[in-house]
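From: lab user (bench 3)
To: helpdesk
Subject: output format question, protein + iron/sulfur cluster

Hello, I'm new to running complex predictions and I'm not sure whether the block I got back is the full result or only part of it. Here's what I submitted:
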Amino acid sequence: MERILVSACLMGRAVRFDGRAKPTDHEIFLRWRDEGRLIPFCPEVVGGLPVPRPPAEIEDARGARAVLEGRARIRTPEGRDVTAFFLAGARAALHAALDQGVRLAVLKENSPSCGVHRVFDGSFTGTRTPGPGLTTLLLQDHGIDVFTEDELPQARKRLAELEAAEA
Ligand code: SF4
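Helpdesk reply: Thanks, we reran it on our side. This is the complete output you should expect:
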């Protein structure tokens, strides 16, 4: 059975920076959960950050690629550099995915770790900028398809393609 890495907060785990979860009750997601396909993972907690924790954003809208290449940092509103935690979490997520043969992930949009199409821009004003989060980028770099919680039909289609190719 094809397994799917998912943001732990989407599974109802209270691991977000504000101490809350962000559960989804979409029927596709719930079916996958009941089938035992889902592997919940929170890169920020696994990377060593507490719950709750200060928010953090990629500085100056410079993007996750710049962070991976050491050209940008991830900071809290007070300017504390938390990049090392985010990098550790992203690498741990990749390791978990590769270890379990994961080829598909559903991650939480807008997060500096899990965002897929957008992340906050580093101004802490709620402004978003195009581009993936750090974990998403690392997974994509290793051939894993990543969808947001709003793209479950597309993720289901991809899952069907992967399973058909295996049949
Ligand atoms: Fe959810 Fe990802 Fe943020 Fe963890 S790092 S709380 S899994 S969005």
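A quick orientation on your result: Residues 7-9, 15-16, 42-44, 108, 111, 113-114 surround iron/sulfur cluster (CB under 6 Å). Let us know if anything else is unclear.
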